[in-house]
Amino acid sequence: MENKDTIFSAPIAKIGDFTFDERVAEVFPDMIQRSVPGYSNIISAIGMLAERFAKPHSVVYDLGCSLGAATLSMRRHIQQEGCKIIAVDNSSAMVERCKLHINAYRSDTPVDVIEADIRNIEIKNASVVVLNFTLQFLSPEDRQTLLEKIYEGLRPGGILILSEKYIFEDDTAHELLIDLHHDFKRANGYSELEISQKRSAIENVMRPDSIATHKQRFNDIGFSSSEVWFQCFNFGSMFAIK
């Protein structure tokens, strides 16, 4: 049985910055399903994309793997000989639980779960790299550097899958999509207090980009193709192919 996310259900006198600590790790599956529109669809499709793009004797990276949902989805789909998944997260609470989830299922595709800062991970011989709601937590100047490193480590024809929350340049559209996201959270049982306090906690640590910014970065780095393949309100996922 999933633990229910009640982290922001009581008034908090001084709201600190959101962190992926033990409390969050305990309720993360419930939190993400009730907070991110289309999350299950994204996880399922990451597996399908990995099946299509993973190459024999290559490495698949899940950077910012949290509890391993994307890793497990990819491992279910990858059929290639000699393929390995490296899952990385900087939260010890997440990594500990991720290892339990990975070890609960047997597979021919080995998985290494590593506790580390994704900015310090060497990317090499990669056919698939996933950043599933991860890049938005890095400082803007670190995003370009990480994406360049991923590009260099990707094989020709390799794919980067990038899921993010988006901002929109049209103010009317931006506000409407934020409102619809809050409606989504209300429909999933979050109170006004929870929505407000979570927003305050996360606004200093998560600074989303626009779709145009992401596409410009991909283009500047040298990716041959990029597009949004999924969007629900102000959340979505993109691919970039080397």
UniProtKB/TrEMBL annotation:
<feature type="binding site">
    <location>
        <position position="199"/>
    </location>
    <ligand>
        <name>S-adenosyl-L-methionine</name>
    </ligand>
</feature>
<feature type="binding site">
    <location>
        <begin position="64"/>
        <end position="66"/>
    </location>
    <ligand>
        <name>S-adenosyl-L-methionine</name>
    </ligand>
</feature>
<feature type="binding site">
    <location>
        <begin position="89"/>
        <end position="90"/>
    </location>
    <ligand>
        <name>S-adenosyl-L-methionine</name>
    </ligand>
</feature>
<keyword id="KW-0808">Transferase</keyword>
<feature type="binding site">
    <location>
        <position position="39"/>
    </location>
    <ligand>
        <name>S-adenosyl-L-methionine</name>
    </ligand>
</feature>
<comment type="function">
    <text>Catalyzes the conversion of S-adenosyl-L-methionine (SAM) to carboxy-S-adenosyl-L-methionine (Cx-SAM).</text>
</comment>
<keyword id="KW-0949">S-adenosyl-L-methionine</keyword>
<dbReference type="InterPro" id="IPR041698">
    <property type="entry name" value="Methyltransf_25"/>
</dbReference>
<dbReference type="InterPro" id="IPR005271">
    <property type="entry name" value="CmoA"/>
</dbReference>
<dbReference type="Pfam" id="PF13649">
    <property type="entry name" value="Methyltransf_25"/>
</dbReference>
<feature type="domain" description="Methyltransferase">
    <location>
        <begin position="60"/>
        <end position="158"/>
    </location>
</feature>
<dbReference type="GO" id="GO:0016743">
    <property type="term" value="F:carboxyl- or carbamoyltransferase activity"/>
</dbReference>
<dbReference type="GO" id="GO:1904047">
    <property type="term" value="F:S-adenosyl-L-methionine binding"/>
</dbReference>
<comment type="subunit">
    <text>Homodimer.</text>
</comment>
<comment type="similarity">
    <text>Belongs to the class I-like SAM-binding methyltransferase superfamily. Cx-SAM synthase family.</text>
</comment>
<dbReference type="InterPro" id="IPR029063">
    <property type="entry name" value="SAM-dependent_MTases_sf"/>
</dbReference>
<feature type="binding site">
    <location>
        <position position="132"/>
    </location>
    <ligand>
        <name>S-adenosyl-L-methionine</name>
    </ligand>
</feature>
<protein>
    <recommendedName>
        <fullName>Carboxy-S-adenosyl-L-methionine synthase</fullName>
        <ecNumber>2.1.3.-</ecNumber>
    </recommendedName>
</protein>
<feature type="binding site">
    <location>
        <begin position="117"/>
        <end position="118"/>
    </location>
    <ligand>
        <name>S-adenosyl-L-methionine</name>
    </ligand>
</feature>
<dbReference type="GO" id="GO:0002098">
    <property type="term" value="P:tRNA wobble uridine modification"/>
</dbReference>
